[in-house]
Write a structure and sequence with these properties.
117 residues; 5 helices
Length: 117
């Protein structure tokens, strides 16, 4: 299931999560979201907590004040490759270069063709 399907949010929040200049980066076991749309982006940095691939909370005032997910949580949910890398990091597994499976994981899951090792 896609992380967006786990969240409830308004159309306005969805639009803002997409058009505002939100910079996302892994910060420990969380995602740091910095709103570059503001004149002082450093005053608009928030940590989004992710559990089992779903952004469950944010340190911004809107997440505590309003019902539903804030734009920061929605922006994180949109970035599935970033969530995949974070999931691997939280599990202590090396992520693949594209955020997917590592070569070792692909080799383990590969079904050999008949007659091949």
């Amino acid at each position: 299931m896609h992380p967006l399907e786990e969240l409830q949010f308004s159309t306005t929040v969805a639009k803002r999560a997409q058009y505002e200049a939100l910079a996302l980066s892994i910060f420990g076991t969380n995602i740091l979201v910095r709103n570059e749309s503001h004149a002082t982006p450093s005053d608009h940095e928030y940590l989004v907590t992710v559990e089992e691939g779903v952004p469950v909370s944010c340190t911004c005032p809107a997440d505590a004040r309003f019902d539903g997910a804030c734009k920061h949580r929605v922006a994180v949910a949109i970035q599935r490759p970033l969530l995949d890398v974070l999931r691997c990091q939280q599990a202590g597994e090396p992520p693949g270069a594209d955020g997917g499976q590592s070569q070792e994981q692909r080799d383990e899951n590969r079904t050999p063709k008949a007659g091949l090792p």
